[in-house]
Amino acid sequence: MTRYVIIGAGAVGASLAAQFEQSGIDYALVGRGAQIGHIRQHGLSYQRPSGVRQISLNAFDLSEPPKLTPDDILLLTVKAQDAVSALALWSWRNVTGSSLPVAASLPVVTFQNGLATEEAALRTFSHVYAASILTPARFTETGKVVVGGDPYVGIVTVGRFPSGRDETSDRIVLDLNRAEYLAEASADIRRWKSAKLLHNVRNALELFEGPTAVKDEIGGALVDEARHALQAAGYRLASPSERTIDISNWGTAQNSGIQPGQQSTWQSFTRGASSEVDFLNGEIVLLGRLHGVATPYNDAVQRLAGTLAQKGGFSAPLSLDVILSLVDNSEPTRQTGLAAAI
Q1: Element (H, E) at 296
Q2: Overall pTM > 0.85
Q3: Which site from 3, 75, 111, 181 is most exposed, i.e. has the minimal number of CB atoms within 10 Å?
C-alpha cells in the first residue's frame, strides 16, 4: 500500500497531510522546529471555507523521521531555497527491505515554485516527478494553516521529470483527487512549471506599496521579461486551455481567511523565514544572463528582496518607487540607491 512521506510542514505540506488524514490515505508528515512540534503535541488548526478543525496528524520531527519502505513516495514540500539541503538529507537514507538507498529506489515529487528543484533532484534521485500546484494557502502562525480553495483545496498537475507519464504519476493524481484536489497528469510537466513561474514572479510585489496602476505596470514588466527569458531558454509555456480537467468552478472562497496580497513570498517575510525570490525572479535573471535577455525589473526586485532578507525583518512594505529607481539608474547608482532605500 502506498504511503506518502510529506517532507515539509508549511502551508502546502500540512494541508496535504490534513487532506490525506481526512480521506483515509496513508501518509507521514515530517518537519522541524516549532511548527512540527506544535502539530505533534496539539494537532493542526486547519481552516477551510467550511470551518476550522483541530486535526491530529501522523507527524514526525526531522530528527526522528519514520522508517522508509519500498512502497513509499516522497512529497517534497519545503520551499525552493531549502530543497537542495532536504534532498541531500534524504537521498542516501536506508529503505527497509531494500538494498538500495532512497534516491535509487523511491520516487520523489517536487512541489516547489520555480524551475531549479527538479534538476537538483535528478542529481541523486532516479525517479523524479514534478508537481505544479495552485492553492490559496497561508501559513503565518505556528500550528495553523488556512486554505481558501473552494470547492477543492487546489489544482495540481503532476508528471515525470523531465518528461513522461506513467503508473506512478497516474496513481499520485488519483490519490490527490481522492483528497479533494483537482489533479491531472501531464507528459510534459516542464511546460506547466514554467507557465506557473509567470505568475510567481509577481509574488515579491506584495513586499511593496504604491498606486495600483504603478504596481500593475511593474507586474506586467516582470511577466513580460519572464516570458521572453523562458522562451529564449527553449521553454514552451503551457496554456490554460490545455487542461484536461474543468477548473471553471474553482476559486478562493470569500471570507475564507485568505486575503489578496498574501502569497508565499509575503508569508515567508512575515514569518521571518528565508526568501524564495532568488528561485523566482532570480530564475528569470539567470535565464536572461544565459540567453542574452534583459531583465531589469526582475533584477531590481531580486536585489531589493535579497537586501531586505539580509536585514532579518519585514515590518512595513517598501515603496514601488525604489524598483523604478533601480531600473532607471545605471549600475553604480543602483548600488547606492539600494543601500539608501532599504
Answers
A1: helix 296-311
A2: yes
A3: 3
pLDDT digits (tens, 9 = 90+) for 222-273: 999 999 999 999 999 999 999 999 999 999 999 888 876 566 676 767 666 6
Same domain, yes or no: 28 and 168? yes
Q: Write out the residue range of the structural domain in which residue 32 sits.
A: 3-188
What is the rounded distance in angstroms from the CA atom of residue 70 to the CA atom of residue 103? Answer: 11
- pLDDT exceeding 70 applies to what percent of the chain? 92
Residue ending a domain, among 135, 169, 188, is 188
Residues 52 and 160 in one domain: yes
- DSSP E strand boundaries for 96-227: 108-110, 128-134, 137-141, 144-147, 149-150, 155-160, 182-185, 208-209
If one counts the domains in the chain, the total is 2
pLDDT digits (tens, 9 = 90+) for 207-236: 999 999 999 999 999 999 999 999 999 999
Residues 22 and 53 both lie in one domain: yes
CATH number where 242 lies: 1.10.1040
Q: Let me know: does 276 contact 114? Beta carbons within 8 Å.
A: yes
